[in-house]
Amino acid sequence: MNSPDEDAAPEPSAPQQAEHAQVDVIASRDEYLEAVRTIAAGTGPIAIDAERASGYRYSQRAYLIQIFRRDAGTFLFDPPAIGEFTELNEVIAHEEWILHAASQDLTCLREVGLNPTRLFDTELAARLAGLARVGLGAVVEDLLGIHLAKEHSAADWSTRPLPQAWLVYAALDVELLVDLREALARVLDDAGKTDIAAQEFSAVLAKDFVIVRSEPWRRLGGVHSIRGARNLAVARELWLARDAYAREIDTAPGRLVPDSALVAAARTLPETKRDLAALKEFTGRASRSQIDRWWTAIQAGLTTEDLPALRMPGESIPPPRVWSDKNPEADKRLKRARAAVTEVGTTLSIPVENLLTPELLRRVAWTPPDPTDAQTIGAALEESGARPWQIDATAQVIAKAFVEAAQSPEEPQDSAS
Questions:
Q1: For residue 407, with 0-12 CB atoms within 10 Å meaning exposed, 13-18 middle and 19 or more buried, which class applies?
Q2: Could you say which of 27, 121, 123, 214 would form a disulfide bridge with 102 (CB–CB 3.0 to 4.6 Å)?
Q3: At what angle do helices 388-407 and 194-206 cross, to 10 degrees?
Q4: Nearest to 295 by CA among 277, 279, 278, 281
Q5: Is 320-407 in the same CATH topology as 216-303?
Q6: Rounded to whole angstroms, how far apart are CA atoms 392 and 348?
């Protein structure tokens, strides 16, 4: 009699990554200019990707840029060594660029002079197509039937020299993008979503993804647990000191001293440098080596007359969780409209956040136009940045939901905040 182990079917083996030729990095101007000439002689769109060192370095610069073009090949460039990519941009700017999740890479590409004028975003296309999984590996596997290993996605790409395994991974990220673009274009066309995708791609190109915050220190993880203006002042000075040092040595701030350590110091307010060093929650590789820096920041926070407000200057619209108390009518409008828009998203097989961002819906629900009808709702959405296809899909149902909310005293069940 066979044992259970002998009777069991063998475990399916994970698909193996195909063998790949040796990959070299272009790190000199002469090699770069030769590559530009080769890319110019290629045909079709430009598949492009960039690797940063998020979580390792302070800057969000590109440490590797990968390009693939049919009849030209694959090229991996070292941006810190090459500098500006003006010549390459002049050659490819008028072509369609294919990126996966373009919003993540456009800023660092623009930083070196690479600025597309036509875009196909395969991640965004997958969302609009209604695919359940939109990561590059998942979409490639679903549509092309190819396993794409993603084990180096969080690597420190500022490492030099880059390991060959990482370079192969980086090359594969672009070598399949042209085929993937064609497969996604067919899916979008079959679903009647080609124009929708074009509008979304244009919106991505027009957007500036550099966020400038007036009080960036308030994004310190755990800052909401700090009570008292003086404690907040200490938290602010610690954050500023860490940010300045991180920028100076080009290291991710959290790798020096984690947010939790800064918050612990701000809540405790140690009385001496020795007390700070003895605080067990004050951890991190630079927590003791830079103790004078952190103690100076604490002293600055304890003595400053520029005390921060206890609460961050809020938006004109409060969070939805308090609407039932602050503006019950708006609360009813939002709940009914959100349910209606969600239903439209389900019908179109488009994620609701891509159909209409929650911020736009909240804005129009808080202060609806008068009179409230599809035309005025559409105008309000357009003023806030909605695309024509979004307005066509949602303005009528939002207007109807608002009318129903005004006529009914009962609120629909909605657990979302």
A1: exposed
A2: 121
A3: 100
A4: 277
A5: yes
A6: 12
Distance of CA 128 to the CA centre of its chain: 17
pLDDT, block means (10 residues), the chain with 417 residues: 45 54 96 98 98 95 98 98 97 98 96 97 98 96 91 89 96 97 98 98 93 88 94 98 98 97 97 97 97 98 95 74 94 97 97 96 95 95 96 97 86 49
Reference 145, options 189, 101, 183, 186; nearest CA is 183
Rounded CA-CA distance 123/100 in Å is: 5
Task: Please calculate the CA angle 200-42-195 and round it to the nearest 5 degrees.
Answer: 20
d(CA 93, CA 45): 10
Q: Indicate the pTM of the whole model.
A: 0.88
CA count, 13 A, side-chain hemisphere, 340:
21
- Give the residue from 241, 242, 237 showing the smallest Cα distance to 255: 242
Put residue 115 in one of left, alpha, beta given phi > 0 → left and psi -120 to 50 → alpha. beta
Domain boundaries, the chain: 25-206, 216-303, 320-407
